[in-house]
Amino acid sequence: MPSFDQIVAAIAGTRVLAGGQSLLNVLRRAAAVDALVDIRRLEEPRSIDIERGGEIVIGAGTRYDEVAASDIVRDALPTLATVAAHYVDRPVRARGTVGGESCFNDPRSSLPPLLVALDARFRIAGGGGLREVAAVDFFRAPFRTAVAQHEILHSVVVPALAPDATVTYRALQVAWEIARAVVHLDGEPIARARVVVDCFGPRPLRQPAIEAALLGRTRASVDPVALGALVGPDEPVAGDPHANAGYRLEMARVLVAQALYEAVGEELPWTIS
Q1: 87-102, pLDDT tens digit by residue?
Q2: The whole model's pTM is what?
Q3: Does domain 166-263 fall into CATH 3.30.390.50?
């Protein structure tokens, strides 16, 4: 069986098949490639390990159900384990991979906004060895990432959470994904904040105005509704046949407020489903 380095050397001009849950649908309907390199049988990229400082390293070929079942992930990153455990349906979880979803970068994907909120880093293998790219820079536009044509994603590195960290994830699907929101808070008063929304922009979008407003506050003093109202894109929101731009933006604001209520330990005064 070829090694990971041999696969890297062989991928120029090809598409890499990891789980195939997204790529094969595209190839059936809208695209064609001259060759596919199938890496599903490689063991090297299917691993979950703990590195220095408690960082969790997830191989790009690791499947969703492997993430969900991992004691390492469930102990260190419980929100990630929960999202993986409920992703789509059982057949997809048994075949789809962390690296495949990340590199495909469908705007409706669940993992990208969560990985941005967790300050994950992506290790990318190429002819010059490994390089790392922060998640906020990895996802560039729908179906585009920092992985170049001659490279392949090797692994995802997620820093250890602070002992007092809370990470909350909210999503709305009405026959189709409408919006997602992730809130990651550390400290009391809050010393670090990440607020990320997805599904209405070209990539997962951090919300710097909300993050700045959270810093230095006690959790009891946070007004989730007022902060949720600050959600905004860095460019015009795009509508589609499933939801117009205004609805997507309003639902993103609602989801951020819900995620903030949960993150600060308050009961939701209302809910959507």
Answers
A1: 877 887 887 889 888 9
A2: 0.86
A3: yes
